[in-house]
Specification:
This protein has about 140 residues and is of the alpha+beta class. The longest helix is centred in the first third of the chain and has 12 residues. The protein contains seven helices and five strands; from the N terminus they run ααβαβαααβαββ. Strands 3-4-5 form a three-stranded antiparallel sheet, with no helix packed on it.
């Protein structure tokens, strides 16, 4: 949380770090107000090679599921729908060296490809958790 506050306000040191090491930030744009400076900083960090993971700081937001506000701010920072889907799914797995869990019968049923239109992920047709339909 402290680093998020830092990079949202002033990205100079973070940019220096990004150029010399494998820097990863969690977006948290909506949780901290989505200021123009934070959006510009995220754009600059990405341009410097920083990995961005989706995150909202749940203590500050009460969205059930992905936050449309967070996604909109990530797009404003120059991320594509495909970038955002990766920030929500494959990038965290890769960063924490985790294997995707299979066989738990947990799935989302979407009306289209979220890599082409993130709105499909924000409004799933069905949500199944451990074989039970919850939405």
């Amino acid at each position: 949380m402290q680093f998020a506050r830092f990079w949202h306000r002033d990205a100079d040191l973070a940019l220096g770090l990004a150029r010399h090491c494998r820097l990863v930030v969690i977006s948290t744009l909506a949780a901290f107000g989505g200021s123009d400076r934070a959006i510009a900083n995220l754009r600059a960090l990405r341009e410097a090679g920083t990995t961005v993971l989706y995150g909202t700081d749940l203590g500050n937001l009460r969205d059930a599921g992905p936050s449309a506000q967070e996604v909109a701010l990530m797009k404003k920072a120059g991320m594509t729908d495909e970038d955002i889907v990766a920030a929500m799914t494959t990038m965290p797995l890769r960063y924490w060296n985790l294997a995707p869990r299979t066989g738990e019968n947990t799935k989302l049923v979407l009306d289209g490809d979220p890599k082409r239109n993130i709105d499909f992920l924000l409004s799933p047709r069905e949500v199944w958790i451990r074989g039970k339909r919850v939405h």
